Amino acid sequence: MKKLFFVLAMSSLAVVVVDAAEQDTVNRCAAIISQFQQMPERAIPRDVLRRAKGLAIMSVVKAGFIFSAKGGQGVVIARTPRGWSGPSFIATGGGGWAFRLVPR
Fold it and tell me: What is the mean pLDDT of residues 28-48?
């Protein structure tokens, strides 16, 4: 019985942590959209938003010197007949390398 209680307690704690991480991702993506809309030269045109079937909002970090890596996460929302859908969470990542010889 103690093992069952322990497993249930740990799994519920994991669900709470995942919910917090997902909410942080949604909040970060909402901030990205707000920041873009506040910059007149980079604002998303209203006509584009009106016609959009969906939006993908991501934050990506890239770094490299000989070896490179990138990774990010975000959300995708779709326009439905009843309005915007709930967020679906996405992630991306990658890596690479390059060796360049400079001719003399």
Answer: 79
DSSP for the chain, please give it: -HHHHHHHHHHHHHHHHHHHHHHHHHHHHHHHHHHHHH-TTTPPPHHHHHH-SEEEEEEEEEEEESEEEEEEEEEEEEEETTEEPPPEEEEEEEEEE---PPP-
Task: Evaluate whether 64 touches 56 at the Cβ level (below 8 Å).
Answer: no
Per-domain residue ranges for the chain?
A: 2-96
The residues, any chain, with a CB within 8 Å of residue 61's CB and separated by 6 or more, are 70, 71, 72
Contact call for residues 89 and 72 (beta carbons, < 8 A): no
Model pTM?
A: 0.60
List Cα–Cα distances, 40 to 28, 36, 43, 46, in angstroms.
Answer: 20, 8, 5, 12
> Is the pLDDT assigned to residue 12 strictly greater than 80?
no
8 Å CB contact between 41 and 25: no
